[in-house]
Structures are given as C-alpha cells and as structure tokens.
C-alpha cells in the first residue's frame, strides 16, 4: 500500500474541488439552455443530460423537417435555432412529460 503525504493529499483534494466547480459550472450553463417551466426545481445532473439529449434530438428533427434554402442565417435566426422559439419549446416540454 502506498502512503500519500498530507501535502500530496491536500493538493489532490484541491484539484478535485476545482474539477467539481468546473463540472458544476458546466451543468449550470447547460441547464440555462434547456427550456423548462419556471416553477420546476433545479434539474439533477442526470435529468439535465436526459433533457438536453431529448431537446437536441427534437431541434435536429425540426431542422431536418424545415430545411433553410439559404445556408447563410442572420444572427437573430441563428439564436432562434440554438434556443428554439417559444412554441417549439412548449412542444418539446409537452413531449418530455
């Protein structure tokens, strides 16, 4: 069995804390991109991943069903695609429940 000094353990703990802060920040950012009802509690990590996967699939299907004739989109259109419009978000919410 290998013994680890207090200094090494402390450094490893600090690295792990930084890793967890980074991971939690990434999940928080992902949660802001998933349309949810305002009254819903904070999504768990697994819920966040499941809903994000479903949402991406719905948005991909939407893009497949509504191809653009012009590949150049304005900034507003690009934002609309990345976040979906309100009725599309509502449709997705209904499908997931």
Automatic annotation (TrEMBL):
Stretches with biased composition (Basic and acidic residues): 66-76
The BHLH domain sits at 7-59
Which parts of this chain are annotated as the region Disordered? Answer: 66-97
Molecular function, one GO term:
protein dimerization activity
What SMART domains does the record point to? HLH
* GO BP annotations listed: developmental process
The protein's superkingdom reads: Eukaryota
Which InterPro entries would you find in this protein's record? bHLH_dom, E-box_TF_Regulators, HLH_DNA-bd_sf
Name the PROSITE patterns on file: BHLH (PS50888)
Q: What is this protein called?
A: BHLH domain-containing protein
Task: Write down the species.
Answer: Capitella teleta (Polychaete worm)
* UniProt lineage: Eukaryota, Metazoa, Spiralia, Lophotrochozoa, Annelida
């Amino acid at each position: 069995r290998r013994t680890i000094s207090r200094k090494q353990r402390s450094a490893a703990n600090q690295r792990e804390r930084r890793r967890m802060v980074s991971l939690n920040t990434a999940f928080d950012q992902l949660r802001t991109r998933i349309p949810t009802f305002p009254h819903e509690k904070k999504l768990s990590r697994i819920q966040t991943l499941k809903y994000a996967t479903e949402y991406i699939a719905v948005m991909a299907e939407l893009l497949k069903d509504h191809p653009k004739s012009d590949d150049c989109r304005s900034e507003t259109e690009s934002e609309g695609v990345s976040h979906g419009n309100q009725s599309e978000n509502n449709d997705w919410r209904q499908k997931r429940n």
